[in-house]
Amino acid sequence: MEKLAPLLIGAHASSAIIAGHYAGLWTTLHEHPDRKWTIPELSEKAGCKERWVREWVGVLASAGVLKLEEGMIISCDKDVAQTLLPTSALMQLFDELQIFLDKEDKIGACFKKDGPLGVGYSEYPTFQDWMGNWSECRNKESNFPETFMKMVGGGVHEALEKGIKVLEAGCGRGRHSIAAAQRYPNSSFIAFDIDEKTLERNRVDAEKLGLKNLQFVKGDFCNMNPEWENHFDYMMIYDCMHDLPHPAEAMKGLKGVIKDNGVVTLYDIYASSDMVKETKNPMSAVLYNTSLHHCMSVSLACGGVGLGTCWGVELAKEMLMEAGWEEEQLRFFKEGEFNAVFVMTKGKGLM
Question: How many CA atoms lie less than 13 Å away from 271 in the CB half-sphere?
Fold first, then answer.
């Protein structure tokens, strides 16, 4: 019980943190730093019912997230409210839990030898929106795309400024392509995904922004459009390689669509393929649980290999080299706590 009680408390506190997010309570607390509140005052300011706020405070004061003093006076550390704003990466990780926790019976059935291979994409109707929000909040934090393109180096930023042809593979809700197309209007962008409904929403978003240099099309990593052969100067892939059913085949297709002096950036999870080493970091529980409930599961569900979120940088490098990239064509660096960036360069690159 000594080890399990904090986990149970944390699970229930996480649920209340997410509820407070949707009620707008963290935004209210953030807008009034250092203020001490009564429950009626906080409820009124946040536009919430007092009875609901009282119970919410009970959860999070018990867990140590909020402070509750004699006289029923509530306060919240400034950094806690800041970290739990809707636009923060950590809040997005809390919010991710709600996508998974109603799937436990289906996930549990997959463990059994005679059970399903996995839980498919159709069971996660809100995942694309969540992933889009996750991408957007990280883009803001890292000043994407300009800071990222300069960090990649190799003349990518300068080439985008002048005007090149760019492909985003596995674009999801299109946040990276939209941001890059806005910042680099002289370049032309094509972004593909397998989900036509999501692509249609992306097209609406791009049209509202007046983006004429960006197309969203249906596509598949393992069946690249023949017209794309040796067509693009730059390809970018974000957070999807480990979800794919057949990532090794997908990697082999990357080189064919890139010009002889082109560049590919593969942005994925920073983890070690050595599970014993990786689990020394308690935050890796977030990564493995995301894999258990989505990334590994959706890959296996469609007959894939189930690479998983924590496939690791060692395996990623090995697979890229097996796909035909030579060691001198391959660079790798860590960006932030959870992100790995692989840069593959053909010929002289974009310099």
Answer: 27
- The token duo for 311 is 């496939």
pLDDT over 70, % of the chain: 100
Residues 6 or more apart in contact with residue 71 via CB below 8 angstroms: none
Of the CA atoms within 13 Å of residue 197, those in its CB half-sphere come to: 7
Which residues is 335 bridged to in the sheet? 339
Question: DSSP assignment of 70-95, as one string?
Answer: TTTEEE--HHHHHHTSTTSHHHHHHH
- Numbered ranges of CATH 1.10.10.10 in the chain: 4-84
Nearest to 106, CA basis, from 96, 97, 116 = 116
d(CA 177, CA 160): 13
pLDDT in tens, 204-214: 999 999 999 99
Q: What is the C-alpha separation between 343 and 94, in angstroms, rounded?
A: 30
What phi and psi values does residue 296 have, to the nearest 5 degrees? Answer: -65, -45
The pair of three-digit structure tokens given for residue 271, joined into one six-digit string: 């983890």
Give the span between the Cα atoms of 338 and 270, in whole angstroms: 5
> Domain 4-84 belongs to what topology?
Arc Repressor Mutant, subunit A (1.10.10)
- Distance between CA atoms of residues 38 and 40, nearest Å: 6
If you classify domain 100-345 with CATH, what class do you get? Answer: alpha beta
